[in-house]
Amino acid sequence: MRLLLDTHVALWWLGDSPELSDEVKGWLDTEPEVYLSAVSPWEVAIKLSIGKLPGPSDLAERLRDSHFKPLVITAAHGARAGQLPPHHRDPFDRMLIAQAQTEGLTIVTRDSWIPKYDVQTLRA
């Protein structure tokens, strides 16, 4: 499977949260193609700086330095994100959807609105 982590899933993995089932944790620890978008550390850093996310000040760096494959943001991703229907306005999630669509990835998420887009999802 080629997986792209939603930011909350990456944070749950990093914190060994009981929110993730053993099955999902196993996939994230063993699947060779699990991607972390550049948008996730960016989102975490912004939310930390404005007080919307509790955690250590180096949380974004911890995500960045995880064992997941990095997925950069390209101009193609930006163009695709701008073309998505307005089901949801969160720019970080819209970028994840655009990246998954462009790269043929399955988003691992718990968000209920992401499946409204034409994108493969795996419930975390």
TrEMBL record:
Q: Name one GO molecular function term.
A: nuclease activity
List the residue ranges forming a coiled coil, or say none: none
Q: Which residues form the PIN domain?
A: 4-117
Q: Which UniProt keywords apply?
A: Hydrolase, Magnesium, Metal-binding, Nuclease
**Pfam families documented for this protein:** PIN
The EC number on file is 3.1.-.-
Q: Which InterPro entries match?
A: PIN-like_dom_sf, PIN_dom, PIN_Sll0205, TA_system_RNase
Q: What class of enzyme is it?
A: hydrolase
Q: What is this protein called?
A: Ribonuclease VapC22
- Species this chain originates from: Streptomyces jeddahensis
